[in-house]
Amino acid sequence: ASGQYKSYINGKWLRSCSNKVVTIMNPSTREEQAKVQACTREEIDEAYEGCAKAQEVWRQVPLWKRAEALRKVAGILREQRETIADCLVSEVAKAKKDSLSEVDRSADLIEYCAEEGLRLLSKGDFLTSDAFKGTERNKLCLSSRIPLGTVLCIPPFNYPVNLCVSKIAPALIAGNAVLVKPPTQGAVAGLHLAQCFDKAGDVFPKGLVNFVTVKASENGDYMAQHPGNDCLSFTGGDVGLSLAKKVGMIPIQMELGGKDACIVCEDADLDLAAKHIVKGGFSYSGQRCTAVKIVLVHESVADALCEKVLAGVQKLTVGMPEDNKNITPVISEQSANFIEGLVLDAKQKGAKFLTEYKREGNLIWPTLLDRVRPDMDIAWEEPFGPVVPIMRVTGADEAVAHANKSRLALQACVFTKDVDNAIRLSDAVRAGTVQINGAPARGPDHFPFQGFRDSGIGSQGIVNSIGMMTKTKTTVINLP
Ligand code: G3H
């Protein structure tokens, strides 16, 4: 992935007439990696017009043919797995093996969506009027799900392919058109995904799928507020909070990060908890909204847990994504500085460093902090980096109270051997998902996935996304 890349609008590869580009940096080398188009408002408008026309055709394509078209794209995506994975390595510094998994998972997701769409969208409701008090059986109601129109898809840098198809595939199977605004870091991988749709040929009407790169600071709001949008599916950071206020009266689905708490009870299997904390906290260098972002451990088992987690952390390899290291450079210098700020704040306020803090450029060594207290910023902020804070608590109630005070509430996890305790704590923690004896995770991708409070709105996962990207339409037959 190098050079200058065109946008994909109305079935054509377009060099923007703005003559402006957006530069993509390689997070590992901190050198320029590629350039993409900074499309103009007129070009954005053209994409929306194309969407509207193509959707009119697409919504009438039989469901089984829409499913077949999606399966074709999944097949092409599998053929392109090496190329796309290489883009992820250089654009978002994801380890090569994880980049390949992201592409494979995306193809699986598209195929599952095609299958699920056939089942879900072919079913409707039939009602008779005589159930309602005072009404005769003289009205028959037929109801089914129909598409919304155009779905604006805004995926994040950490899964530029997978969190793109998790929006596109449900939208398309349901009969919608899509306009994708790829993340800046990850845009080239996104454009390679666009190429898979292009290669699928005339199974999709021209203009049904558009990938429009823009300078977000200039045209991000313009896209979000565009009258051509019938739905917004967004994954990203706090910018989503302001977007939610701007988009108007269309269905929105947003996932905006998490401060995923890991509650370790006195009776927990500490080996299991430690294994999940290391994997959950440090995979992709902690740059997952579902990463373990704070450990709340019962004080009586804290020393033993810290020892086991530290042993796991010491086995993590650190280096470049090409070499498949566990810990790779974070996405940008700005991000690395933010993470460092949290670490230094914790240090100044007395956290105990179980590992030495070390940074070279955007590469931050895995950092484990014990005896974190609520007055430290890291007790509340999402580092989105390879740092796991551990807070010692006097009991599960204190842990739950801390988790529930966070403005972010995506997922949480509880480690205990007592099933009653597990259910009690799952009920008490107010987060979108609570995992029992396992680290937070979005997948498998057909499970519901949602954040509470500032972590998001709406529920994702294949089934819920298909539902959210359709609306109910009814026909009532009035009998004489
Ligand atoms: O970063 C947000 C993603 O939705 C997390 O997905 O749990 O599969 O890593 P994951």
The order of strands across the largest sheet is: 15-18-19-14-13-21-22
- Taken from the alpha-carbon principal axes, the silhouette is globular
Bound molecules: glyceraldehyde-3-phosphate
Structural class: alpha/beta
- How would you sum up the major sheet? 7 strands, mixed
Summed up, the helix count is 14
Alpha-carbon distance between the termini?
67 Å
What share of the residues lie within helices?
25-40%
Chain-averaged pLDDT: 98
Task: Work out the number of β strands.
Answer: 27
Give the amount of beta strand, in percent: 15-25%
Oligomer: single chain
Extract low-pLDDT stretches. none
Radius of gyration: 24 Å
Structural features, described:
With 480 residues, the protein is an alpha/beta fold. 39% of the residues lie in helices and 22% in strands. It is built from 14 helices and 27 strands. A seven-stranded mixed beta sheet has the order 15-18-19-14-13-21-22, sandwiched between helices. A six-stranded mixed beta sheet has the order 10-9-8-11-12-25, sandwiched between helices. Strands 1-5-4 form a three-stranded mixed beta sheet. α2 packs antiparallel against α4, α3 crosses α4 and α3 runs antiparallel to α6. The chain starts with a strand and ends with a strand. Glyceraldehyde-3-phosphate binds next to loops.
